[in-house]
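User: For a benchmark we're assembling, each entry needs the component sequences followed by a predicted structure for the full assembly. Here are entry 17's components. Please fill in the structure.
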Amino acid sequence: MAILEKVDKLHRATAWRGDIPITSRYTAGIAGEKFFREIKDNARIMGTYCENCELIYVPAAMFCERCFAELDEWVEVDTRGTVFTYTVLFRDLDDRPLDPPAILAYVKLDGSTGGLVHYLGEIDPEEVCIGLEVEAVFKDAPEREGSILDIEYFRPVEA
Amino acid sequence: MTAKIEKFPGVYLRESDFRDKKVLFNEWNPNAQYAWDAGVAIGRYLAELKEGRLVGVQCNKCRRTVIPPRNFCEWCFRPMDDWVHLPDIGTVNTFSLCYVTWDMQYLTDPEIPAVIDIDGTSPAVGIMHKLGEVDPQAVRIGMRVQAVWKPPEEREGSILDIKYFKPLEG
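Assistant: Structure for entry 17:
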């Protein structure tokens, strides 16, 4: 046996195969729980209001990121908004081609300081532009399960 | 909790809260597959296990014989010189009685992991395995043990091709 002993044929190379059982659970937290319950039960998007800073956080937060005040004033915000920025995806997470491509956008919601990252739908990638007015399309009530995907996508507002 | 804190802030959740969907959550099972390249030394070790044999390596400089095999002598920083077949008999170097599994399940009959010094190897060289066919209270350091192999058709080139080590008769 020498250091220069090499595996020169593929069938001689041995690998030990296995898998690691991992389960992860992510809870939305106190404010997140209420935020998603509102989407599930009432198909509305709620934010929290900071009186000091005159900001409305969407998604709802428990405290103000600027003044650290606890936020307990909940306000409904519009399900309409504008495209702040977007990207077109031609590959999925596993590098498989996406056909048709997916459009991901950060949508600033009217009447709030925040917004949501979500898909755009009912539109061709070529037609998307920054500043485009869009509205949320919710799934039907029985299909909603308290997830951000209870909103199917945002679509352009009919002129 | 601690000397100063009686109860940490936050919401305490039980398994039943998830089961009964009292709380919203995302659940994800990552597909965490791996393939660990066995290399030349462990590759042959596993292949020999499939044949029902133990193999070690020997360094001609420090004159040690070690198992599991490795390419380098970690004492001399030079390549190992020869393969050596070794008997499946050894001596318990150390052991533990384990009443809890790796995922925290209680066991009535303990697992007995042990380091076994294989005959023909140098001092302070051993492999980790389990003991079987033995009363846990009767296990002693220095006990002579022998490998119990799976039948040839069930072996798959794994350290588990040895089911366990049992006390040597007589």
